[in-house]
Amino acid sequence: MRLEEIAAKLGCETLSAVDHDIDVDAVVASDGMSEILAFHRPHALMLTGLTNIQSVRTAVVADVCALIYVRGKRPDAKVLALAGEHGIPVLATPRGMFESCGILYEAGLEGVM
Known about the structure:
Layout: H1 3-10, E1 13-14, E2 26-29, H2 33-38, E3 45-48, H3 53-62, E4 66-69, H4 77-85, E5 90-92, H5 97-106, E6 110-111
């Protein structure tokens, strides 16, 4: 599924430059960055409510294709700048983690265990 479709399904707002042609086939979702690192798959989409700089550093190490902040949370400019330096698209959805994961699962994306 393309990132553009995911953004539409979740009602996302684009917070940084986004290549909507990114293909996504898996999702890793957690507010625990150690869980993201333990159970990631390269090029997966990352969902989190943690908006500090560690979320982007984790995304870099986990080699995710894009980062979506849930529950209407928005990172500060420093966080967005770091994501931009690493070419990680950043979006935000007003939906919660549970609902977002359910929508993406229903759309055919698999979770990363």
